[in-house]
Prior knowledge:
This protein is α/β, with parallel strands linked by helices. It has a single domain, classed as NAD(P)-binding Rossmann-like Domain (Rossmann fold, 3-Layer(aba) Sandwich). It contains 8 helices and 7 strands. The protein has helices at 18-29, 41-51, 67-81, 105-133, 154-174, 195-199, 201-210, 220-230; strands at residues 9-13, 33-38, 57-61, 86-89, 136-141, 179-186, 241-244. Strands 3-2-1-4-5-6-7 form a 7-stranded parallel β-sheet, with helices on both faces. Strand 2 (33-38), helix 2 (41-51) and strand 3 (57-61) form a beta-alpha-beta unit. Helix 3 (67-81) runs parallel beside helix 4. The chain starts with 8 loop residues before the first strand and ends in a 6-residue tail after the last strand. The model has no long low-confidence stretch (mean pLDDT 98). The chain binds NADP nicotinamide-adenine-dinucleotide phosphate.
Amino acid sequence: MTMPLEGRTALITGASRGIGRATAIAMARAGARVAVLARDRDALAKLVIDLGGPQAATPIPCDVTDAGQVGNAVETAIESLGALDVVVNNAGGCRFTTPFETMRPSGWQSTTRLNLDSVMHVCQAVSEHLIERGSGSVINMASAVAITSMKDMTHYVAAKAAVIGFTKSLALEWAAHGIRVNCMSPGWTATDMTSVEMRDPDRRKEIAAQVPLGRWASPQEMAAPAVFLASDAASYITGHNLVVDGGLTL
Ligand SMILES: NC(=O)c1ccc[n+]([C@@H]2O[C@H](COP(=O)([O-])OP(=O)(O)OC[C@H]3O[C@@H](n4cnc5c(N)ncnc54)[C@H](OP(=O)(O)O)[C@@H]3O)[C@@H](O)[C@H]2O)c1
């Protein structure tokens, strides 16, 4: 049986852990050679070993909030992989919660820089390459909270909601170039980002009880839909926000 990403190449940001790491592994298992980006060099080096070495994966240390670093990283990825078919803008997170009235502008800005500006930097850096090739699949990581709400997280929710709007508009612009642009909205997924909630047994159970499927997701359950969106099985899907939340937003 042919693997869904056989012969393809993929760049994945935030691949040092969590959903990004699981996505890199799933895409590699699906046949893609991958370029993995994050700041943690050691974690990237370990991932490359786990994936079978430098012929399978290229580690590229990069802070995605820095446009210059992103430009260099994309250049390195194209050089190393030959071309880019798939781009996963996964790096992101929410480093603090606060009532809106006590939000400091610096906290707002660092959150939008990490979750929104980073997506813009990567998409701009790959634009010429993808347009020239007349193909590509871009997947941006939004969040289920972006289509509902979350108390004390206006900064994060606003940034992720913007990612959904950005995705739809870019999908419209790039459709004529043969490039698909989609996003995913994960629900509660067990990663470092949610470790505070996971470590508190009551909160962990309370969250699971809010989810119609009755449990948290594993990072692998986000990786499989990402492989689908990247593959030809999703060849007629663009501008879509794939909600992967166990029914949380129903
Ligand atoms: N977990 C959830 O429940 C959940 C729900 C909805 C949406 N999401 C979204 O899904 C994505 C992945 O989340 P996760 O749960 O896997 O989080 P995670 O385990 O905390 O991983 C975050 C990843 O982003 C990378 N990253 C953070 N800041 C970066 C920067 N400035 N430059 C480059 N890479 C950076 C981290 O690598 P380094 O630290 O090595 O740089 C890490 O690989 C995020 O966009 C998150 O907002 C998660």
